[in-house]
Amino acid sequence: MSLTERITRIVSQPGRGLLASDALGNVHRLDPDLKLVASSGATSSAQAPAGAPIFAMALAGQWLITRDKLGTISRWDADTLRLVDRLDAAATSDQSLLMEGEEPSPTMVRGIGVWNGKVYLSNGYFQLVVLDLETFAVDRLQPWSPEFARLEWFCTDAPDVQAVTDRSGRVYIGSLDTLDFPVVSQVDSSNIHRLLYDGRHHRFWATLDGGTGQHRNIRNGVATVGLDGQVLERSLFARNDVEAMAFSPDFRKAYVGGFDGELLIFDNTSAELRIERRVSGFSHQIFDCAVDDTGAVHVLTQDGEIASFDPEGGFLNRLAYERQCAWDIRPVPGQSGRFAVATDDGAAVVDVVERFPGHPSLHLSGHDTDGSGFTRRVLPTADGWYGVAWPREVLRVTDDRRTWSVQLPDIVHTLALSPDGTRLLAACNSGGVELDAHTGRVTDRIGELPSSAWVSGYLPDGRRLLGTRNGILRAYDGAGAVTWEIDLGGYPKRLDVFGDRIRVTGSGGAKEYLADSEKMDRQFVELFDNTVESATLIDGTLCAVSYGMQLGAFDYATGELVGFVEDLPDFAKCIASFHDSTGAPVIVVGGRGGFLRLYALDRANPGQVLRPLRELWLPRTPAACSFEVKAAADGAGIR
Which residues have a Cβ under 8 Å from the Cβ of 498 and sit 6 or more positions away? Predict the structure, then answer.
């Protein structure tokens, strides 16, 4: 018996191992050696609708409480994993507070609080739900203050007070019994995914996604917070989101991880924040972690892999989950209907096949699985492709043969090819690195950026573009001088250049700029609840996908939203478009799990502008991991 769907959350079940949820709404039990011993059922992605991913779990005695991405709340028997209660996401709300026809929003909130026989969590309408644990009856429904705050975590372990965090960096300290929280502390500028009580030093630890002040969107990590809400100290080790945190049973160590892909082991024997060790070599970005009653540390990465370590970071075991993701999809030059796809294990080639007019399909015609890490971006050429592989590799493949490979000093996020095909520009945490496209030799470096470089590109005149995590986009000439700068108003994820027009996706939707202009030219953002990953333009319609598992269609000229769906099977990462044999536009959306879904784009049908047609699921392979533990006596605290 093995897991077939990606694990999305883990919690420790004392004496029995781990409880885990998956991307289709199932729950499972793994023994301490990560062997699957029980499952709730067999929800299938072929079902319509399939189950939704579970991102929040809490163990409360005999019960396992879960919340899925839509806000459906369930109670399971923690021993048998039998479903006992299920509260529908749309119905579990105070209807008097909703707009007419309002539906629950898909959100990745992670927190469930259990206190004094009650269960506390946020529903799909950003209202607080209070349930009676024994009967699972709705006890209370009310908006939070401030209204529409996205509650992220509940901490009920501290004596005398309880605490709640939200996605705007606030910590609320007070009483869940009375729902009175007189202390509101602005600890971060973004998500606080975890807030844990430190029983050794009588304080909270908070994860920080954004950073504050001069460090905002530049450096972040963790903070210690007094029970009065005062920030005591910060350790700003991260350049990306911090997702996971857990203490050892005796509170002598804290384990922290996130999208930089390292597990940090903090020495918590003294009050000062001190990084003792770093564990690297994970197959993907860290998404969750749990410490069991023996002190073993179990780390979940975004691809569904789980790896276990001893308290000092020594490797014990791993799940060897067969995973897949479509990270990037781009048309192959000169080959109509052919696309290159960046995958978790290399790169794939898919062809549009249409035997009957108006019924296109995708066929997997090639799959290079020789990648040393997941391929984050792919730039296809007539004879192969360039790519970025996790975490630091830039590579060239020609005629199915690896021509060259270069390891850069830091994590690489994106890659761009110059208009003449001779240069590559990699966006890295350490800045921009330019390479000779034929040999892979590093020819130039662009440093002294305001923060990590997350996107790169080239203008038609050869100038180089770098966009940073804190939202600054600059153009550099051949000598490295800045010739243009603009504030994007948020972090970028991808950048594409079309003549003198620059399209950036990320925080704040899909945005377009004219080179050397002083302001944004267009923006497409309505209804997106999270980061926009990628966009495509076809027949006057811009379509974009978000980290909230959403697909939106916008009129390109006016920016008006004309179509919107939230039925994607998992996180969307990439999007492309083509015309079928009848001339009708078709959208391809790919993402986590390895799905490539086709949508018909029909502006003449306002009721269903985006109509799902079919899916291709790419083959899966086990993750590749090579763990390394480094001593890092790093007193990195900032008071």
Answer: none
356 burial type by CB count under 10 A (0-12 exposed, 13-18 middle, 19+ buried) = exposed
What's the length of the chain? 639
Q: How far apart are CA 345 and CA 351, in angstroms?
A: 19
Q: Return the amino acid letter for 296.
A: A
387-404, pLDDT tens digit by residue?
999 999 999 999 889 999
Tell me the residue range of the domain where 598 lies.
323-386+526-622
Sheet containing strand 550-555, strands side by side: 532-538, 541-546, 550-555, 561-565
The CA–CA distances, whole Å, from 223 to 256, 452, 566, 635 equal 11, 21, 35, 13
| Count of CB atoms situated within 10 Å of the CB of 249 | 14
Residue 165 sits at the vertex; the CA angle it makes with 160 and 169, to the nearest 5 degrees, is 130
Q: Return the percent helix, strand and coil in the chain, to nearest 5.
A: 0, 55, 45
pTM: 0.96
Identify the CA nearest to 11 among candidates 96, 78, 100, 98: 78
Domain boundary among 524, 555, 590: 524
Both 376 and 442 in one domain: the answer is no
Q: Are residues 418 and 348 in the same domain?
A: no
* 118 touches 130 (CB < 8 A): yes
DSSP secondary structure code for residue 249 in this structure: T
